[in-house]
Amino acid sequence: MTEKRQEKRQELRTRLIEAARDRIAAGGLRGLRARDVTADAGCALGGLYTAFADLNELVIHVNSDTLRRLGEAVAEASAGIEEPGTKLKAMALAYLAFARTHNALWLALFDTTMLADVEIPQWHKDDQAGLIDGIARTLAAISPDMDEDARQRRARTLFAAVHGIVSISLEKRFIGLSGDHLEGELESFVDLVARAPTPLNR
C-alpha cells in the first residue's frame, strides 16, 4: 500500500470512528447501523469494510477512543493531588462525572451483547487495563507493603465496586443513590476500601 493510500485509509478510519462515536452518543450502541455511519462519514457502505473488518471492529475503536477520553478525564481531575486517598476519591468522582456526561458512550464500553462473539484484540485489553493501573499506582502509596498481585486485585475490586455504585445509581435502580447523596457516599466508600487492611497472599 502506497503512502498516499495509507493516508486516505487513515483519514477514512478517522471519519468513520467520529461518525460512529456521534451516533452512539446520540442513540446508544444498540441502534448503530453501518449505513447510517457511512452516510455520516460521507462514504459508500463498502468504505466501512475497506477501513475495518466489520462494524464490530469499528465499535472496538470507538470504545478505545472513549477509554482514552475517560482516562484523560480521570487523570486531569486527580493531577496535582498528593494525598493518595484524596486522589482516589477525585478519580472516582471524575469517573462518575464522565459516566453522567457521556452516558451512552460509557454504557457502550460495558455492553457485551454486540461484541459477545468477537475476539477482543490485545491492544484494546491493554487500553482497558490502563484505568486499573492508575488505581494500583495510587494504592501503592497507601499500602506500600502490599505486593503487586494483591495491589492489582485491590485495584480491580475498587474499580468494579465504584462502577457498580455508579451504574446502579445512574440506572435509577431501587437500591441506587440519588444525585443528592451519590458523590458523598462514593467518596466515603472509596476511603473505606482504600484504607482496608492489606490482604493476606493466598
From TrEMBL:
InterPro entries: Homeodomain-like_sf (IPR009057), HTH_TetR (IPR001647), MT1864/Rv1816-like_C (IPR025996), Tet_transcr_reg_TetR-rel_C_sf (IPR036271)
Any one GO molecular-function label of the UniProt entry: DNA binding
DNA-binding residues: 33-52
Sorted UniProt keywords: DNA-binding, Transcription, Transcription regulation
Domain HTH tetR-type as annotated: residue spans: 10-70
Protein name per the record: Transcriptional regulator, TetR family
Organism: Consotaella salsifontis
